[in-house]
Amino acid sequence: MISKKYLLFLAGIVWSVAGYNVLHIGLQAYAGYLSPVLFFGSALVFLFFQFMIFGRLVKKHTKRIQGYQEEKKWFWNFFDLKSFLIMAFMITGGILIRSLSLCPEWFIAFFYTGLGTSLFLAGLTFFYQFFHLRTTI
């Protein structure tokens, strides 16, 4: 068990590492497909995931963690079951898309770059919440 205030830090690590890995795959795929259209596509994917999904997720889990009454929690309590299931679905889907070549490389380039950037920013936002709120939770 760990102090609940470190759950935000742990979430920051998990989401930053996941975001870096997805972003890295996307940037590698960009090598042969550099174009303004794909850059614009990456920006749209980033904006969608940042404002519709991951930005909300960070707020939701920060509020939930702040509301814990117990000082010590299990390390996996940085997320709830629904979020772990979503994460498992996204990881499995991403692996299947790439391993079965279900999408062309140009799609991987723009989609993974936008998604990975948003995931990475979510991780950084969890770190920000940890350092900003560490004295209050």
Q: Any overview of this molecule?
A:
The radius of gyration is 16 Å and the shape is elongated. It has one domain. It has helices at 7-30, 36-66, 81-99, 105-133; strands at 2-3, 72-73. The protein is built from 4 helices and 2 strands, in the order E-H-H-E-H-H. A two-stranded antiparallel ribbon has the order 1-2. The chain has 137 residues and is mainly α. The chain crosses the membrane at residues 7-27, 33-54, 74-97, 109-131. Keywords: Membrane, Transmembrane, Transmembrane helix.
How many helices? The count is 4
> What is the helix fraction of residues, given as a range?
over 70%
Strand percent estimate = under 5%
Q: Overall mean pLDDT score? A: 90
Low-pLDDT residue spans:
none
**What integer value in Å does the Rg equal?**
16 Å
Distance between the first and last residues' Cα: 16 Å
Number of strand segments: 2
Run of helices and strands: EHHEHH
Please give the domain count: 1
